[in-house]
Every structure is written in structure tokens, then in C-alpha cells.
């Protein structure tokens, strides 16, 4: 069953730019400069989206010299994917069930 935390996470990932960032970070850790180049977003806008992703626990940071690298936390994505898999299994099990109208 999806919890309110899962619902919040879905809202965070529903933004197209944040989803693009997550997709890029699934391939490799990147700094803000790389993400600006890859997405075409302005640095300020990108930083705001990264803050939202960090606060939601989707990404974590790793300092490297004067740069800050962002890494995807696969455990968070896997947990959410598991919730959706459970939901799909419930739907399969309930196929053909129908509640009678009063």
C-alpha cells in the first residue's frame, strides 16, 4: 500500500525536469555543471530542483574538490518500484471482482 511518503515522492518525481535529472543520475554521478549542460536548464532552476530531490531523499551529495556531485539513491527508487509492483499484483488478483452497487 502506498504511504503518504510514497505519494510525496511520486509528486517530486512527477516534474519533468526532476525526472530527467533522476534519469541522468541513474547513469552516473554528476555535478551541477554537467546537469546544466545535459538538461539546458538554468543553474538556479536546476539547483532548486536538486534541493527538492535531496530533501525527498532521492539524491545524495558527495563533495569533490570545489564541486558537489549528486548521486541517485537506488534504494529509494527500488522501494517505490516495489510499492507499484505490489499495487499491480493486487490489481491482477482483483481482476473480475466487482462490488455490488447499493
Quick structural summary:
With 102 residues, this protein is α+β, with helices and mostly antiparallel strands. The chain has helices spanning 4-14, 16-25, 32-39, 43-55, 74-94; strands at 30-31, 59-64, 67-72. The protein starts with a helix and ends in an 8-residue tail after the last helix.
What strand order characterises the main sheet?
1-3-2
How many strands? Answer: 3
* Largest sheet: number of strands, sense, barrel closure: 3 strands, antiparallel
Fraction in beta strands: 5-15%
Mean pLDDT: 93
The sequence of SSEs as H and E is HHEHHEEH
Structural class: alpha+beta
List the helices and strands and how they pair.
Blueprint lengths: L3 H11 L1 H10 L4 E2 H8 L3 H13 L3 E6 L2 E6 L1 H21 L8
Antiparallel strand pairs: 1-3, 2-3
Describe the structure.
By secondary structure, the chain is an alpha+beta fold. Helices cover 62% and strands 14% of the residues. It is built from five helices and three strands. Strands 1-3-2 form a three-stranded antiparallel sheet. Strand 2 and strand 3 form a beta hairpin. The protein starts with a helix and ends in an 8-residue tail after the last helix. 14% of the residues are buried. The mean pLDDT is 93.
What distinguishing features does this structure have?
three-stranded antiparallel beta sheet; elongated; 102 residues; alpha+beta
Amino acid at each position: 500500500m502506498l504511504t503518504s511518503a510514497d505519494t510525496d515522492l511520486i509528486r517530486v518525481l512527477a516534474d519533468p525536469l526532476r525526472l530527467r535529472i533522476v534519469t541522468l543520475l541513474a547513469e552516473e554521478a554528476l555535478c551541477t555543471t554537467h546537469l546544466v549542460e545535459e538538461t539546458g536548464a538554468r543553474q538556479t532552476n536546476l539547483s532548486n530542483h536538486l534541493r527538492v530531490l535531496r530533501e525527498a531523499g532521492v539524491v545524495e551529495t558527495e563533495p569533490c574538490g570545489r564541486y558537489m556531485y549528486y548521486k541517485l539513491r537506488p534504494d529509494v527508487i527500488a522501494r517505490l518500484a516495489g510499492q507499484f509492483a505490489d499495487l499491480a499484483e493486487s490489481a491482477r488478483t482483483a481482476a473480475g471482482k466487482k462490488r455490488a452497487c447499493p
